[in-house]
Design goal:
heterodimer; A: alpha/beta; 20 helices; globular; B: mainly alpha; MetI-like fold; two-stranded parallel sheet; 13 helices; 71% helix; elongated
Chain lengths: 588, 302
């Protein structure tokens, strides 16, 4: 097999105010025709810069040296016009964020046609037909109508399909997919990977798949290269790398991925529950476009009930827009609810004044998704950590507060000497430890983790999950663990609740839910979860959901899995106890 | 450097953001030099009568519009004893500039600080609380904005009699409005940030959130606007004085001196040069201090 792309000893340097950064060190790789090469690495490993450098797309302060050959022709440092005949035509790219990589003021159709008209010299009419065919190929429904829409009118998954259509329409030899599914929900991720797989099989397109997720690579790649700190530490056929990793780092990456059977010891629910949520509803008014647009009600949380006992972990799973974060905020009284009750230790929080609730915050704390955004950039982390203590126990002396801040920092694995550091001086994982320390300093009885590990690299994710587990074992606190990632939830939760458009579709003890999912949505979610097991991934038959999540404003949306009741708009599927403690919503 | 040192100490004191900000300000040479120069000007203004043998209202008809003794260019007459020369009725310009500094600096600083405090608190409160309260508070601002300034000052003077304090009140009452709008706008965007929600979830009260999280984060635009306010206020005072509503002769201010000096620019340039020089240096100092403060408040800045 001849190499399509051959990169030898590529080095990338960036000149920054802090000195020279050697982002890619002596990287060599080759991709053959119709082959899929997976590049794995955590953030900052230089995996994206490698390809940007190869095709002359480095930022202004970057320098690349070495050799990049495309079909035997040297292209590193080639003049832009020569590269332009290659880029977008024979080699195309798909980026992580499909919103920022589409031009916002151009219609979808025009953007797809652009590459074709530019590179293949076809008439506009023919280009239009080809563009529509392409949209059909990437399974965009109502393609004729979509051609006339703007990028912001499409969902993230649809936009990523448009990106793939744009990248494929010129019939390239090589597609570079840089974290193509990272910003997407699991079910949409599965659909996108399916499209990439069919590209490789039907069209014999070579794919360079860059990802931090071993699961994404496992199902698609023929060969894998593992990158760390700009160096390729291991490379080989996918089965060898996954089943017999030679480098410690690869082993660490594989071990960090949660596996089945790692469930926490069960807790026995004794006495009255700590928290009872009864038919909780939160809705937001949504104004339609235009001067006289009607105001409609978006039911973000539409009647959710659950209880939480001491020491128990409730996992909350759902895709973006299912209301899981809204639920957390309403339970914590950070958002006003529109209906239902939240009872904390037998006390209905409706009867509590704002001041009472502020005092009650000692008992329930939250850790947010984005560790950097949830810390005040102008406060040293020590001050941030001590803040809840100062607010909730103002009688403490400064010395005691500092003592406890130091203590909790040590407990979450932060060096107490970092008390004066600022959030931007710490890494994402360290900042999340700060967030955890801030929540834990007041010894809460309940901790809500809202996607607390989603923004972190897998290895860091595993550390933080382990830390949360240890803290829970020590303090016997209850946990509401919200995530879109089913495998992480499994590691921590005693019970799991699956949300779909603001309602519970299934709630069951963790073991039962993963072993015996009853609701079709849960099954689809579970089947979309990727495992770092190439053979299983290749053999896997997926229960794919088609299309997007319906709009929550659509009154029929709730009945997606209950078509027989479609003639009764406004009907809400009921939760039925299908086994002891295992509830599933009505479905067909 | 300090971090390495402190890491070695077992008992580490937490620094607040203000302590860090002060350390960064002290490292800023331009800001520190400006503070020193401004300090000298303030010192001169305070001890003006001791530094000169002349009084600010001492008229000398023998020395009318005389250049200082060292004046290198041609002049009608020279007054070797008056280092900045004399004005049209023979008063010493050096001592008048220093007396003018008292008025101008007082007006400039007091009116700016008043507008800063009211504007920032008002704007941050309106922006943070939002909803009806925000609407109501900002409509009050709109109404005050629509009052014609001169008319407002004349009414104040008529009702309360002409008074130095009224000058602060009048200028402060107008200047805080823009500040409140700027701060409110910034607050609206900061309010959406996750760290504000995190603070709420941590149990921090609304007042503490405004003072600890919102205000430090709006400091950039505020400082820029303050450095623009000081000169505006100083000029506004001279305008009011020109209309006979502010400082009255023989007391003076930089604004008055500059406008008098501008009339005689061709025959007696020193009458314009020295007050203008003092004012320019002062305004430069304020600008550098403002920049220094803004940078000092931002930990990401290097």
């Amino acid at each position: 097999m001849s190499a399509l792309l051959e990169i030898t000893d590529l080095n990338v340097h960036f000149a920054t105010p802090d000195g020279d950064v050697h982002a890619v060190k002596n990287a060599s790789l080759s991709i053959s025709e119709s082959e899929c090469l997976g590049i794995v690495g955590e953030s900052g490993s230089g995996k994206s810069q490698l390809f940007l450098a190869a095709f002359g797309l480095l930022a202004g302060n970057g320098r690349a040296s070495g050799s990049v050959k495309y079909r035997g022709r040297e292209i590193l440092g080639a003049p832009t016009p020569q590269l332009n005949t290659l880029r977008g035509s024979a080699v195309t790219m798909i980026f992580q964020d499909p919103l920022t990589s589409l031009t916002p003021h151009m219609k979808i159709g025009a953007q797809i046609m652009e590459a074709l008209v530019l590179h293949r010299n076809v008439s506009r009419e023919e280009a239009r037909i080809r563009a529509r065919e392409m949209l059909d190929y990437v399974r965009i429904p109502e393609s004729a109508q979509r051609m006339r829409q703007y990028p912001h009118e499409l969902s993230g998954g649809m936009r990523q399909r448009v990106m793939i259509a744009m990248a494929t329409i010129t019939g390239p030899d090589l597609i570079i997919a840089d974290e193509p599914t990272t910003a997407l929900d699991v079910t949409v991720q599965a659909q996108i990977l399916e499209i990439l797989r069919s590209l490789k099989q039907d069209r014999k397109t070579a794919i360079a798949l860059v990802s931090h997720d071993m699961g994404v690579i496992a199902g698609l790649a023929d060969r894998v290269q593992v990158m760390r700190y700009g160096e390729i530490v291991e490379s080989g056929p996918v089965d060898d790398v996954f089943y017999a990793p030679r480098h410690d780092y690869t082993r660490m990456l594989l071990d960090a991925i949660p596996k089945a059977g790692e469930m926490p010891a069960p807790v026995t629910a004794v006495g009255a529950p700590l928290l009872t949520v009864d038919d909780l509803q939160v809705s937001f008014p949504v104004k339609e476009k235009g001067l006289f647009g009607k105001t409609r009600t978006l039911r973000a949380v539409d009647g959710i009930s659950f209880t939480l006992h001491q020491g128990e972990t409730l996992g909350v799973v759902g895709e973006s827009g299912c209301g899981k974060s809204t639920l957390a905020r309403a339970v914590l009284q950070l958002l006003p609810k529109t209906g239902g009750r939240v009872v904390w230790l037998g006390r209905d929080l409706d009867t509590a004044t704002q001041n009472d609730i502020r005092k009650l915050r000692q008992d329930f704390q939250i850790v947010f998704q984005d560790p950097l955004a949830s810390l005040d950039p102008r406060m040293p982390v020590g001050v941030s950590i001590a803040e809840p203590l100062k607010a909730l126990e103002p009688h403490l002396t400064g010395e005691t507060v500092r003592e406890r801040a130091r203590g909790i920092m040590q407990r979450v694995g932060l060096d107490p000497a970092w008390i004066n550091r600022y959030p931007h001086e710490l890494s994402g994982g360290q900042n999340q430890r700060v967030g955890l320390a801030r929540a834990m300093i007041v010894n809460p009885q309940m901790l809500v983790c809202d996607e607390a590990v989603s923004a972190l690299d897998v290895s860091i994710q595993a550390q933080i999950v382990a830390l949360i587990r240890d803290l829970q074992a020590e303090t016997r606190m209850s946990l509401i663990f919200i995530s879109h990632d089913l495998s992480v939830v499994r590691r921590l939760s005693h019970r799991v609740m699956v949300l779909y458009l603001g309602r519970v579709v299934e709630m069951a003890p963790s073991e039962a839910l993963y072993a015996d999912p009853r609701h079709p949505y849960t099954r689809a979610l579970l089947s979309a979860v990727l495992t770092p097991d190439p053979r299983a991934e290749r053999a896997r038959k997926r229960e794919l959901l088609t299309g997007d999540l319906p709009s929550p404003l659509d009154p029929k949306a709730q009945l997606s899995f209950l078509a027989s009741k479609l003639d009764q708009p406004g009907y809400r599927p009921k939760l039925i106890e299908v086994a002891p403690g295992h509830f599933a919503a009505e479905h067909d | 450097m300090s971090q390495n040192l402190s890491a070695a100490l077992p008992e580490l004191k937490g620094r607040s953001q203000w302590v860090d900000a002060r350390a960064r300000l002290l490292r800023n040479r331009a800001a520190m030099a400006s503070i020193v120069i401004l300090g000298i000007i303030v010192f001169l203004a305070m001890f003006a009568p001791l530094l000169s043998p002349y009084a600010y209202d001492e008229v000398n008809y023998d020395l009318i519009s005389c250049a200082p003794g060292w004046w290198p260019f041609e002049a009608m007459c020279t007054a070797p004893g008056n280092i900045f020369g004399t004005d049209a009725i023979g008063r010493d310009i050096f001592v008048r500039v220093l007396y003018g500094a008292r008025v101008s600096l007082a007006v400039g600083l007091v009116a700016t600080i008043v507008s800063l405090v009211i504007g920032v608190l008002y704007g941050a409160t309106a922006g943070y609380l939002g909803g009806r309260i925000d609407d109501l508070m900002m409509r009050v601002v709109d109404v005050l904005y629509s009052l014609p300034f001169i008319f407002f000052v004349i009414i104040l003077m008529v009702v309360f009699d002409r008074n130095f304090i009224l000058l602060f009140v009048a200028i402060g009452a107008v200047e805080w409005l823009t500040m409140a709008r700027i701060v409110r706008g910034q607050t609206l965007s900061i309010k959406q940030k996750e760290f504000i929600e995190a603070a709420r979830a941590a149990g921090v009260g609304p007042f503490s959130i405004i003072t600890r999280h919102v205000i430090p984060n709006v400091v950039g635009p505020v400082v820029v606007y303050v450095t623009l306010t000081v000169p505006t206020v100083i000029l506004m005072e001279s305008f009011l004085s020109f209309l006979g509503l502010g400082i009255q002769e023989p007391l003076t201010s930089w604004g008055v001196l500059i406008s008098d000096g501008a009339d005689q620019m061709e025959t007696a340039p020193w009458m314009l040069l020295f007050p203008a020089l003092f004012m320019a240096v002062t305004l430069f100092c304020f600008n550098f201090i403002g920049d220094g403060l803004r940078d000092a408040m931002d930990p990401k800045d290097r």
